[in-house]
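Aggregate trends can hide what the representation actually does to any particular protein. This step matters because it turns folding into a mapping between discrete strings. For completeness, the protein is quoted in full, as a sequence line and a line of structure tokens:
=====
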Amino acid sequence: MVYVNWFVERMKKTFNTVVSQEEVSYEAYDFYHEELDDLLVPAEHLEKLPNPLLFETLSYVDGKGIEWISGFILEEETRRILYEVWIKNGEAIAYELYIEDGKENER
């Protein structure tokens, strides 16, 4: 799976944490806006995203018991990432909104 490789590379590059692909878990769910917690997507970002939306997560628990989660919202038709959030032990530590006012950023 492409995103597992991305997760492993991002963990090494950004967080200096080596992760084996076999230790990464994957889940995907469709959500309506009112079902999501502000921890995952703040309200000001959520209003710019599709409703319902596809939310995919990759997670890993390191040797110290720290849980790392990368969540992303995809445009279902193209599979392009619209939003990305990183959560460490239940606390959002980083996010990126790849669209602005309902339109994709030119990057």
Q: What stands out?
A: The CA atoms of residues 59 and 69 lie 4 Å apart. Residues 2-8+22-104 form one domain.
